[in-house]
Queue: 3 jobs
Job 1
Amino acid sequence: MRIPNLRIDRKLTTHVLEAPLAAPRRGVMLHYDDSSRDDWAVEWFTDPRCTNGYTWLVLDSGAVIELADPQMRTPHAGPCTTPYANSAYYGISAATNGLVPATIAQLESIAMICAALLHYHGWPADSLDERLVGHDAQAVWTSRYTPNRLLWGHTGRKVDPTGVRSDRQPIIDVAAMRNRLR
Ligand SMILES: [Zn+2]
C-alpha cells in the first residue's frame, strides 16, 4: 500500500515481521531505534536476528526508509496502555539514541509522514493529543518483562523517544511535534 504525499526515499526488504492488523489504525507512535550510526541502523533490519521493527525509519539526513507495508502491523510497540498497539499505531523511528537529539531534517521528515497519515485517515488536528504518541507514554510492564508485580500495567518500560539526557532535552519532543502539525 502507498500513502499519498508520503515521500519514501528507499524501500527495504527486511526481516521485520509483518502481520495483518489486529485492530484499526488510530494514530502514530514515535520512537528512536537506539542506534549510533545510520548504516548500522539500516543493516539491523535486514539481519535475521532482528525481531523489532517499524514501518518507517528516518535517518539523520531526513531520508525515509520504508521497512514494512503500511497496511500491516509490525512489532514496534509491545504491551501498551492502548490494546493492540502494534496495530493501532503506525511505528516511526528516528535513527538515533537516547543521547543524540533528532536532527532538523529528521524532524522535518517525521512531520511529513505524520501529516500524510493524518490527511489519509482524515484525522482532525484537534485529535492529535491522542493520535500522536511517544512509546514511553504508552509502554507498560508485564510479567514477560519483569518479575516485579508492582510494576505490571504501569508505564516506564520504555524511555524513547524522550531519551535520557541529563539536560532533559528530548530526543524527539512529541508535544512540539503535535504543535507543528496543528
Ligand atoms: Zn520504541
Job 2
Amino acid sequence: MSDTVTRSGHLVVVIGAGPAGIYGSRKLTEAGHEVVLLNRDIKPGGLAEYGIYFNKYRMKEGIRAQFRKILADPHIHYLGHVHIGQAAELSLEELRAIVQPSAIVVAAGAQGTKFLGIPNEQLPGVYHAKDLVYHYNELPPFSQQHFRIGQRVAIIGIGNVMVDIAHWLVHEKKVAEVIAVARRGPCQRAYTDQEIKSIAANIDTDDLHAELERVRLRIGADGENMEVICQAMTKYIHEASKDGASPTKVKFRFLSSPVEILHDADGHPRALRVEDTELVPKGDDFSAHGLGTFTDIEADTIVFAVGDSVDFSLGLPCGKGGFATNPNPDADHPGAESYQVFDPESGQVMPGTFVIGWSRQASDGLVGKARQDGERGVAVVNRYLETVAKDSEETAETKLARLSEALQTRGVRAVTYADVQQLEAIEKQIAEQRRIEYFRFATNEEMFARLSV
Ligand SMILES: Cc1cc2nc3c(=O)[nH]c(=O)nc-3n(C[C@H](O)[C@H](O)[C@H](O)COP(=O)(O)OP(=O)(O)OC[C@H]3O[C@@H](n4cnc5c(N)ncnc54)[C@H](O)[C@@H]3O)c2cc1C
C-alpha cells in the first residue's frame, strides 16, 4: 500500500483500532511513518464491529473490507487484546518509555459511561446502552454478562442508540413494552427515519396520539401541527420490519426529565420517576424546563441511552467534558489545536500526544465522521512529525520486540493481525457450514483456543 513512499523513520503508536484509529493509521503510513496499532479487543473495528446493529450485514462487511485492506499494510503493526491505561497491564507512561514513539495518537473511542446522577442508577436492571450494545454484538466480556431484562423497559434518550436498543428488545427479547423517555418534545427527537423503520410497525399509535395530546399545550402546537408531527412519527408503521413480527408495543413519553429510579422490596426497578417539563427557547433551539410536578413511568428495566463519555482511566488529563485539548487557537491551521492533548497543570501542550475520533468528541456521529476526524487529526500529527527529529536510530522491529517482551512479562497475550486473519477464516468457514450470514466467536477463550491449534 505505502511501499513506494519514502520512510520517515518515525514510529507512531495509535491506541484504539476503531474507524478513527484505522483510517488515521492509513494516513500515517502514507506519510511514511511506521504505526504500532494497539487495541483493547482481540478484533479490530471498535463500534463499527461491535456497535453497529448486528444484522446490518452488508454495511458491516463493507466497512470490514476497507479495514482489512488497511490492516494488511506491512507498516501497520496491529496488536489486539492490549489494554492501555492506569488500571490496565500497561500504562500510557510505561508504553511511552518502552516504545519511545515519535508520537502517540489516542483513538480509544468513548468507553466511559454516562448516567444522569439520579438516585438508584446502580440497581440491577439499570444499564448503560453501550454495555447492552456490546452484549448483543458479542464483544467479550460483555457477551458473557447477564443482563436482567424484564417486560417493561424504559429507555432514556431519543436518538439512534435508543432505536438500536429498542430494535433488540422488540425483535430479539420480544418484551411487552418499550418506552422511550425524552426530556424535550417530539420535534426534538434525534433518531433518523432510516433507523426507526426497524421498530416502526411496533409503535402503539393509540398511545402516541394520547401522548401527543397530553403534551400539546406545553410544546405550543395547535391541532394541525400535532397532526403533522403524528404523521411524521408514524410514517413507516405499515412497513413490515425485515426482522419479522413482534408483539412488543413501543411508546413515547415526552417532556419528562428523569429524577429517580423507584424500586420494589427486592431492590429491582419498578418505575422511573420523571419531572414534567416544558420547552423554553434557547438560541435557535429549545431546552427543557422543570415544572416541579412528577409522574411515575412504570418500568422494570431502565436503560440510559444519553451518550458516552471518554474513559479517564486511560491516563490523559481531563478537560471540560472529555480529555483536555489545547485551548489556544492555532492561527495557521484553525481547529488543529483540538487534536493536541493539553496538560492543564503545566499549562502546556503535551508534546507528541494527540486525540482523534470519539476520544476527542464523544458520541459524535457515524463511521464516516469518525474517519474524517481520524484523518484530520492525523494531518495535524503529520505536520508535527515534520518538525521533530527521530527519537532514536532504533528500528521499529527493535521497539516492537521490546513491547512484545514487556507485554509477555505482564501476562498479556497479544494477538497479531495474522492471528485476526486466521480467526476470521475459521469464522467464515463455520458460517458457511451452518449456512448462516455471519458467525463470530463470542469469548476470548474460544478465540485463543482456535489460535493455539
Ligand atoms: C449503538 C451504536 C450504533 C451505531 N450504529 C452506526 C451505524 O449504523 N452506522 C454508522 O456509520 N455508525 C454507527 N455508529 C457510530 C460509529 O460506530 C462510531 O462513529 C465510530 O465507531 C467511532 O469510532 P472511534 O474509532 O472514534 O471509536 P470506537 O469505534 O469506539 O473504537 C475505539 C477502539 O479503541 C479500543 N480501545 C478502547 N479503549 C482502549 C484502551 N484503553 N486501550 C487500547 N484500546 C482501547 C476499542 O477496543 C475500540 O476498538 C454507532 C454507534 C453506536 C454506539
Job 3
Amino acid sequence: MNTEMLDKVRHEVNGRLDQKNKSKLGQFMTASVIADYMASLFDKNTKNAKILDCGAGIGSLSISAIKALKKVALVDQWEIDPIMQEQLEKNMKMVGVNFSIYRQDFIFGAVENIRSGTGERYTHAIINPPYKKISSSSAHRQELRKVGIETVNLYSAFFALSIFLMEKGGQIVIIIPRSFCNGPYYKPFREMMLNECSIEHIHVFESRDKAFKDDDVLQENIILKVTKGKKQDEVEISQSTDHEFHDYQTKKVAFADVVKPNDSEVFIHIPTGEEVNENNPLFAASLSELGISVSTGPVVSHRMTEFLEKDLTDDSVPLLYPHHFVNRQFQYPKEHKKPNAIRVAPESRKWLMPNSGFYVIVRRFSAKEEKRRVVAYVINPEEIGREWIGFDNCWNVFHVKKKGFDERTAKGLACFLNSTLLDDYFRVFSGHTQVNATDLKNMKYPTLETMQRVGESYQFSMEQKQIDQLLGVVNEFGTKITTSC
Ligand SMILES: C[S@@+](CC[C@H](N)C(=O)[O-])C[C@H]1O[C@@H](n2cnc3c(N)ncnc32)[C@H](O)[C@@H]1O
C-alpha cells in the first residue's frame, strides 16, 4: 500500500471514529511522512525482525517499519477500537506479512505476558501510543503496579511496557509528548527508561502544532529512539520545523548534555541550536544556595469562592492574577470576571503571604500571544498596601522563607528570568509550555552579587534588547553599570 493511499484511508477512518472515543482513546494517527521518518531511525541490518506496534490504529507505523526493515519475521499489533481493528486487518492483509492483531487492551495483555513470561519478545517497536492521564486509583494504574510500573499517562505506560517486552538490543522508536522529559511525575519512568535503555536519537519539531495537524494537537511532540541494554554513548539530536522535514538538521551531543550527571530529577534536556553554555557565570548558583525558594501560588480560587471579593474592602487584600499585569507593569485593581481581592479570615489566612519585601512571580502558563516561556514580574509591597497578599495558583512565587526579599535582588532576579539567555536555556530542558516550580528550582541562577548589580538598573519598562544588554554588560565587566541601555 503506497503512502498516498494510506493517508487517504487515514483521513477516511478519522472521519468515522466516534468523537467521544477519540480523546478517551487518544486517537491521533500518524501521517505517513512521520511514520516513514520514524522507521528510518531503525538500524537496518536486522534479520528476522519481530515488530511490536501497540495502539496500532490502522497500522501506518507497522507498514513503514516493514518497508524499512525488509526482513520481517512477524508483526504483533494491539488495538482496542473496533473501527481501527477492521481497517488494520484490511491494511495488513494487503502488505502480506506474518501479523497478529490483539483486539484487547494492551496494558492488560502486556502485563499478563510479562508476569507469566509468555508471549513474544521483540527486536523492534514502533509506537504512537494513546495520550491520556491515568489516575492513581484507575484499573490501569493498579494493573501496571503488578509489574512495578508507576506512571501517570497512557503514553508512558505503553512505553514502559514495551521496554519490558523487548529483547536485549531491541530498538524502540516512539513519538510522544515532550512533557515526560521534565514533568515531576514522570521521574520514576525516566529512571526506569534510563536504567534499561540508552537514548540513541531525539527528534524535535520546532513548530508545536504541526506533527498532528489534522487533529489540531498543540502538544509538543518528540520522536525518541532508545535501545534496550545498550551502553549509553553520544546522542543524536535532530530538528525540523515540521513534519515535512525540509530543514532537517542533526548533530551529536554528549549524553551529559542530555541528562546532567548528578541531576536528582533526571531531567532529559534536548540541546538544539543555540547552546546556552552552562559555564556562563550567570548560571552560577542553585536557588537553595541563594537562600531563595519557589512555590506554586497558594490560592486555589475555585476552592475558596466564599472568600473571593470583586473589589478590595476593609477586610480583604489583593489577590493577584496575570491580567493584573500589562507590559510587565502592575495594574490593580482591574475590572475583570475574576475577583480583585480575597477576604482575610482565620480559614483563608494560611493561603496568604505576608506583604513584607519584594516577591518575584512567574506565570505557570504562558499567554498565547507571549513568545517567551518564562515571564517574571516584581511585586512591590508599597503597591499592595495591605498586610497580606493572595497569589493565585497560576503563579510560581519566589520567596525567602515565605516572605518577600530586598528590592535589588528581586529586580535582578526578574531581569535574569526575563532575559533571552534564560528563555533559551529553559527551552532546552522544558518541552511544555507550562513552567513548573520544580523546573525553576532545578535551574542555576546568577550569584546574589550579580543579581543585585543588575537589579540596580533594571526597569520594568525595558525592551527585550535592553534587558539582554544589561545582563550582558554586568556579566562581562562585573561592575556596577549606570548607562541607560
Ligand atoms: C495515538 S493513536 C495512534 C495510532 C497509530 N499507532 C498511528 O500512529 O497512527 C493510539 C491508538 O491506540 C489505541 N488505544 C487506545 N488505548 C488502547 C489500549 N488500552 N490498548 C490498545 N490500544 C489502545 C487507540 O484506539 C488508537 O488507535
